[in-house]
């Protein structure tokens, strides 16, 4: 028994000696293995999360692009104003005798856009109409330059020729009513016009251009612009249709907004919306920011 105890004591002493001599290196080795294992686990976890992140990133980008397309033009105000500057544009068109899918496809193949010019408001419900075909390259150039909203809020001189390179038959002042694009390729399919002599009053969706964002107190405090309307419908004389309306944000604090009745327009324009107290734009922020802005306004 004593021999066994002595043997165990000597083995224990030898183990302590080995541990004191090589324990640090062994501990570092174990620590390195642990770090490597942790890194592998983290990499595995990241690899599992990566597809989700890519999915949500692609989804957010798609949603943002769709939102930008639905809400309107997201270019800087200076570029929008320059593009929407009212200029006299003359559209060239040719008479069209037939209608239907086959005939319209033939027109598009030769660089023309099938169009209709109505005599009066709601002309599609009855009344005189004229079938024409407008030059596609010219229309696409205008629409791509100023955007659909600005294109539909301007009047144009429509010159109708008897044939390409021929003489002018008639010249009309027209307002674009509807523009149809291909759902997949955004190709210009057809455009509907309505005659707009100076004596006629027409309902027009006028686009809004927001200015003063750089000097807006609410944005400088960390707020953001919540846009409720990008176009506003007015009944306008054909010779007094504004290309756009400016909305100045330079004096708005957090929580403040601009209403329909606050828009500065020509007295000859009449708002189609019965309730003129609806908001157009508001500077949003956190609850504390809005409370502070309300307190400052009360002072």
Automatic annotation (TrEMBL):
Large ribosomal subunit protein bL25 L25 domain residues are 91-193
Which CDD domains does the entry link to? Ribosomal_L25_TL5_CTC
State the Gene Ontology terms under molecular function: rRNA binding
Keywords in UniProt for this one? Ribonucleoprotein, Ribosomal protein, RNA-binding, rRNA-binding
| Gene Ontology CC: one annotated term | ribosome
> Where does the Large ribosomal subunit protein bL25 beta domain lie?
202-286
Q: Which InterPro entries does the record match to this protein?
A: Rbsml_bL25/Gln-tRNA_synth_N (IPR020056), Ribosomal_bL25/Gln-tRNA_synth (IPR011035), Ribosomal_bL25_b-dom (IPR020057), Ribosomal_bL25_C (IPR037121), Ribosomal_L25_dom (IPR029751), Ribosomal_uL5_bac-type (IPR020930)
Q: Which Pfam families match?
A: Ribosomal_L25p, Ribosomal_TL5_C
**Protein name listed in UniProt:** Ribosomal protein L25 beta domain-containing protein
Protein source organism: Riccia sorocarpa
């Amino acid at each position: 028994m004593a021999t066994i105890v002595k043997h165990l004591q000597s083995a224990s002493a030898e183990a302590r000696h080995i541990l004191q001599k090589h324990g640090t290196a062994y501990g570092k080795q174990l620590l390195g293995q642990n770090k490597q294992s942790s890194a592998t686990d983290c990499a595995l976890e990241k690899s599992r999360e990566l597809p989700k992140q890519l999915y949500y990133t692609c989804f957010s980008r798609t949603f943002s692009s769709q939102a930008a397309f639905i809400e309107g033009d997201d270019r800087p105000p200076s570029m929008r104003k320059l593009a929407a500057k009212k200029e006299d544009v003359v559209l060239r068109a040719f008479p069209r005798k037939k209608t239907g899918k086959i005939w319209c496809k033939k027109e598009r193949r030769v660089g023309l856009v099938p169009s209709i010019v109505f005599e009066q408001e709601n002309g599609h419900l009855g009344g005189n109409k004229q079938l024409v075909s407008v030059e596609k390259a010219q229309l696409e150039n205008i629409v791509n330059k100023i955007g659909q909203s600005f294109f539909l809020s301007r009047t144009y001189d429509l010159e109708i020729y008897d044939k390409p390179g021929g003489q002018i038959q008639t010249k009309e002042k027209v307002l674009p009513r509807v523009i149809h694009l291909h759902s997949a390729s955004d190709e210009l399919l057809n455009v509907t016009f309505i005659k707009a002599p100076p004596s006629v009053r027409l309902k027009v969706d006028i686009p809004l251009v927001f200015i003063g964002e750089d000097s807006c107190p609410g944005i400088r405090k960390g707020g953001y612009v919540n846009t409720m309307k990008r176009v506003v419908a007015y009944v306008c004389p054909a010779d007094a249709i504004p290309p756009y309306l400016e909305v100045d944000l330079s004096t708005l604090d957090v929580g403040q907004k601009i209403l329909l009745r606050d828009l500065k327009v020509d007295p000859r324009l009449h708002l189609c919306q019965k309730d003129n107290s609806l908001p157009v734009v508001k500077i949003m922020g956190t609850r504390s920011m809005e409370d502070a802005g309300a307190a400052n306004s009360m002072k």
